[in-house]
Amino acid sequence: MSQVLNLSQIRIEGEATTKLEAMREAHQILVGAGAVTAAYLPAMLEREASVSTYMGNFLAIPHGTNESKEAILTSALSFVRYRQPIDWDGNPVHFVVGIAGVENEHLEILSKIAIVFSDDDEVAAMLAAESAEEILDILGEVNS
Known about the structure:
Elements: E1 10-11, H1 19-32, H2 40-50, E2 54-56, E3 59-60, E4 76-88, E5 91-100, H3 105-117, H4 120-128, H5 132-138
Parallel strand pairs: 1-4, 3-5
Antiparallel strand pairs: 2-3, 4-5
Helix pairs in contact: 1-2
């Protein structure tokens, strides 16, 4: 698996104020990274409509449906932090991590993200981080 998260895919000050805007922001970063086509956003919205991608610990991981594979060009992540939490179906979300995975790589990526976010100290460090570099240091495991 290649490097799925680069500095250019990390925003420490997200602009969205709603779940829909946050999903669009995550999608735009993935498009900008050359990882997905425009067709991936409707698949992300479809997935969210069937099951919430809220994961706990202030984290949501929007991603497409299994049928959206043709919209994925390469495996990648987008990471956006929000100072003011986004209301994600009644849950406060400070971190939106968009995922696109070729073949079944998204499962491996998801498990690595879950490990980092299950550590309260790591979550606190990401909340306090003052640069994209600090975030990338904390999430560096996703690239290995």
